[in-house]
Design a protein that fits this description.
The protein is mainly alpha-helical. It has a single domain (11-290), classed as Aminoglycoside 3'-phosphotransferase, Chain: A, domain 2. Helix content is 54%, strand content 7%. It is built from ten helices and six strands; from the N terminus they run αββααααββββααααα. It has helices spanning 11-22, 50-55, 63-82, 94-112, 119-137, 179-185, 194-210, 219-246, 257-270, 275-290; strands spanning 30-34, 39-42, 141-144, 153-154, 165-166, 173-176. The strands form three sheets. The chain has a two-stranded antiparallel ribbon. It has a two-stranded antiparallel sheet with strand order 3-6. The longest helix is centred in the C-terminal third of the chain and has 28 residues, at 219-246. It is globular, with a radius of gyration of 19 Å. The two termini are 37 Å apart.
């Protein structure tokens, strides 16, 4: 890792790496370091991400192998969440969650779709954001990786080393327990049938309860939290993908927007409180089609 100190700080990565290693999950080992020059020598977790492996398989063709990968990811996540090592981590508080939500109107709506929201439409967004944040902030808090998905989980073939290898964890926070589950099961880069992800979610919930994690005792309430956490994340991701394209010139994420928007719409259609947001999405979709975009 080459991270010039004047541009990047290795300390957050090292801090979280140590915590995750103590939790017993597979992260890169630190073999040597020179923080004054920003150099870290770390072990190589290979080049095959879960996403690359999953693109070569499907739930229909090789369901047992796919299921095993997700079972491993869930087991690792439970170890992380059970570690208790979240003191001194930044808190996924209201201000941070709100800043992420604001990426949707600022970058996706205004910049990507070229739509100027009316005062009434902005009020719809404001009220929807308030409802989403209220559910998010009421969740039990645990160690959150914050990007626990198929691109950041590595397939490990080495004997004696557990799947998955975990990377890109430097932005870890103390936050809602369902967040990493949304990242994993409502992945922006790979889609599974909802029946399958619901099965995985139930299996997680059962294991988490046995591990003593602070999940809701009622699965319906837990699933509601998960869905509303997904609304926050998917609004954020649409804004991030738009920013990556318009600000940074990275167009590779455009193809992933429809799946993220699909997740968001599904959630809005299920909950009465998000009905006004669904109607706003309909309006934006019509404007997007007129402008040549696919929402």
């Amino acid at each position: 890792m080459d991270a010039p100190p004047e541009r990047e700080d290795c300390a957050p990565w090292l801090e979280v790496q140590g915590r995750l290693q103590q939790a017993g999950v597979h992260v890169p080992d630190v073999l040597a370091l020179d923080l004054e020059q920003g150099f870290l020598l770390i072990s190589d977790l290979g080049s095959t991400s879960y996403l690359a492996a999953l693109q070569q398989r499907s739930a229909q063709d090789r369901p047992l192998e796919v299921g095993a990968l997700y079972a491993d990811a869930v087991s690792a996540l439970i170890r992380i969440q059970s570690s208790g090592e979240r003191n001194k981590l930044p808190v996924y508080d209201r201000a941070l969650l709100q800043r992420e939500l604001d990426l949707f109107p600022d970058w996706y709506v205004a910049k990507h779709l070229g739509v100027a929201l009316s005062d009434s439409q902005r009020e719809v967004l404001r009220q929807a954001f308030e409802l989403v944040l209220a559910v998010n902030l009421a969740e039990p808090q645990v160690f959150v990786h914050r990007d626990y998905h198929s691109r950041n989980l590595m397939l490990i073939d080495s004997p004696g080393r557990d799947n998955p290898g975990i990377i890109d964890f430097q932005d870890a926070v103390s936050g809602p327990i369902s967040y990493d589950l949304v990242s994993l099961f409502k992945d922006a880069y790979v889609e599974w049938e909802e029946e399958q992800t619901l099965d995985w979610l139930i299996r997680y919930w059962e294991k988490a309860r046995k591990a003593g994690l602070p999940v809701r005792s009622d699965f319906g309430e837990f699933h509601r939290d998960y869905e509303w956490m997904g609304a926050q994340r998917h609004l954020k991701i649409l804004g991030i993908f738009a920013r990556l394209f318009h600000r940074d010139g990275k167009d590779g994420y455009l193809k992933d927007m429809p799946l993220v928007a699909k997740y968001l719409r599904q959630t809005c259609e299920r909950y009465r409180g998000l009905g006004p947001l669904r109607k706003l999405l309909d309006e934006l979709e019509n404007r997007a089609a007129q402008g040549g975009y696919s929402f």
